[in-house]
Design goal:
- By secondary structure, the protein is of the alpha+beta class.
- It is built from 14 helices and 16 strands.
- The strands form three sheets. Strands 1, 2, 3, 4, 5, 6, 7, 12, 15 and 16 form a ten-stranded mixed beta sheet that branches. Strands 9-10-8-11 form a four-stranded antiparallel beta sheet.
């Protein structure tokens, strides 16, 4: 098997934060910051699998023959690639523990937990989907998504792992232009199901939204009225690609603290807070109606204006709930004062990140001034795109360049490991953004087959 790559995006919450906790709708969309996984097969000896994740300082090797195959292959426990797994098997989790305790033993407690979570997701998927007959491989992960910033970095990684292992099993077909839409959707569903299993290994009880966005790309609207049941997820396959600034305040925050803050406010002032939550719900519904309308055109300023206005109104309501932060307000102030677009907090608030939809006629000099202000005030800016592709594959790991003197370039592990930062990774293996900038070689199931029509795209699905 040749070396190959998989990739999946991060995500942002565009509308509906906090209201979603109370059964209202929220909208999440893919961003062009992505994770990339290079799978390199080894010779027959040694029979080892190695997980390398240099961005978090992790590397660990396991001998395939020594792994707990008897537990995972027992008839009462065995799962197949087409199975739906909605909870972890505690016996299998326990069987993995001896193979996790030696992961990064000298790391700090925080880093050790991060490394062991990643190893847990990888091993559970490998042991569930693989077999003792697997040949040795090196799985090398790189990510351009800030970790721990509420941007779906772990889900992106789980989608990369899930799709890679399913490809190694040869249980995925495509993606290719002639692939029927229903068949492409089935591949996306299988990748998503196993990515959710990886997310359970890391988070315990994830919503499933992050991996759904990372797998299918574009955007979803989700609602969870009953926490004993999975959320209702509606894919928005026609979500447009829009230029976005993602700004990290570098202000630590706690999701639990912000959620508790809104709960306390709602308990004390229910008659006031409930209408705010209803208004946020209406914003999400309005945004969904807007982007699925045949009249919506991301190249027309009036359409973008409405989308941006909804973002700003949403932020104002979140600020009224007390979940903004002076640094988030400063980012909005800078963007507003330079007439560059529309900004709002994303995620739980109280710090974290802000997103800004850029005005198409934003002044280049003002954009440069904004960058200078961000650097001066300690903010970290990422230029990204909203609503991009989901999981993709580069098979084999060879990129074709547009310029003749470069030709084709095989991606080996050394080059992948030596890529410096976000720019280095994107320059070497990035999938590209926008129809005119997509890198030749990368293929996506969300692009396979005929375009999914809006009637199909709007049909709610349950994870």
């Amino acid at each position: 098997m040749p070396a190959f790559m998989t990739s999946a995006p991060g995500k942002v919450i565009v509308y509906g934060e906090h209201a979603v906790v109370y059964g209202k709708a929220a909208m999440a969309a893919a961003i062009s910051l992505r994770s990339y996984l290079l799978v390199s097969a080894l010779d027959k000896s040694p029979r080892n699998i190695t997980l390398v994740f240099p961005d978090i300082g992790m590397e660990h090797c396991w001998n395939i023959d020594h792994l707990p195959w008897s537990a995972f292959s027992h008839p009462s426990k065995k799962k197949y690639y087409y199975d739906l797994v909605d909870k972890l098997d505690p016996d299998l989790v326990e069987a993995m523990q001896p193979y996790l305790v030696n992961v990064s033993p000298k790391a700090s407690p925080v880093d050790k937990k991060l490394h062991q979570n990643a190893a847990s997701a990888f091993l559970y998927l490998f042991l569930s989907l693989g077999s003792k007959n697997f040949s040795g491989c090196i799985y090398t992960l790189r990510s351009t998504i800030p970790i721990g910033a509420g941007l779906g970095s772990s889900a992106s990684i789980c989608v990369c792992l899930s799709s890679a292992l399913l490809l190694q099993l040869r249980t995925l077909s495509g993606p290719h232009p002639d692939q029927p839409a229903d068949e492409a959707e089935l591949q996306i569903e299988r990748i998503n199901r196993w990515a959710f299993v990886g997310e359970m290994c890391i988070h315990g009880n994830p919503s499933g939204v992050d991996n759904t966005v990372a797998t299918g790309g574009k955007a979803v609207v989700f609602k969870r009225g009953d926490y004993r049941s999975p959320p209702i997820v509606t894919p928005v396959r026609d979500f447009p690609e829009l230029p976005l600034l993602l700004v990290n305040t570098r202000q630590s925050r706690s999701t639990a603290t912000e959620v508790a803050k809104v709960a306390a406010l709602k308990k004390a002032h229910a008659a006031i807070v409930e209408p705010i939550l209803e208004a946020i719900d209406k914003i999400t519904e309005s945004a969904y109606d807007l982007v699925t309308s045949s009249a919506f055109d991301p190249k027309v300023s009036d359409s973008v204006q409405i989308f941006g206005d909804l973002m700003q109104i949403n932020h104002g309501l979140l600020a009224a709930l007390g979940v903004s932060h002076p640094k988030l307000e400063r980012i909005r102030e800078l963007i507003d004062s330079m007439d560059l677009g529309w900004a709002k907090l994303t995620g739980a608030g109280g710090g974290g990140s802000a997103i800004a939809l850029l005005n198409s006629n934003a002044s280049p000099s003002n954009l440069q001034s904004l960058q200078s202000k961000f650097v001066e005030e300690g903010f970290e800016k990422y230029e990204t795109t909203l609503g991009g592709e989901g999981v993709g594959v580069l098979w084999p790991a060879v990129l074709h360049h547009d310029f003749e003197d470069k030709g084709s370039e095989q991606i080996d592990q050394a080059a992948f490991l030596n890529a410096k930062g976000v720019e280095g990774i994107e320059k070497l293996v990035g999938v590209g953004v926008g129809a005119s900038e997509k890198r030749e070689g990368w293929k996506f199931w969300s692009n396979a087959g005929p375009h999914v029509n809006k009637e199909r795209a709007q049909k709610p699905i349950s994870e």
